Amino acid sequence: MLLALIKWISLAYIALLMVGCAEWGSGTKETPAPAYNDPYTQSDLNELLGFGANMANTPPASRAELCQALLDRQKSSPQIGLQLHLMVGRLLSDACGDIGAIISGVAAIPTASLADEQVRRLVAIDLEALKRLGSVSRKISTLDRKQKNVQSVLESKPPKTPKVEGNKMESNKDEARLLREKLEAIRSMEKQMDENGGN
């Protein structure tokens, strides 16, 4: 009987432990993993300045890859932070997109959506720099086109060959002979003057 009582108490104890463990496990709330805070969607001043500084210190090939990734993300999920990162990135790499598109995209952002006054100032500075960069870019491409046009015109024209007729050719030879004779006469006169001046 004692053995049956010990078995019954052991089973009760195990059952209580199992129920307690089950209660304890179900009573705890699983804390959700912290949401990933994507820095490229942020529009605060420190993030934008840090992004620009990091990008300035990376090689051009890496800049181009980053710009392409930002452009792809902006196409699929347009966000203010991505647009501002592209604006900063475009100052450092042509791969960050078309200047006109970036200017119009950033200009369309409501002022109230920008984090603070310092971000608004940074946006104003960067937009002005992009406008100037775009203007210089247009001037260079215009000059390149003009240069190519001039080059193609020069290459298409055959070199002019003088038309020499029989009498003209002889007269040119006579003129060249006369000029040589005059040159020789001048040289001999200079030589005589040097010799006379030396005595």
UniProtKB/TrEMBL annotation:
This is Uncharacterized protein. PROSITE patterns: PROKAR_LIPOPROTEIN. Residues 147-174 are annotated as: Disordered. Residues 162-174 have a biased composition (Basic and acidic residues).
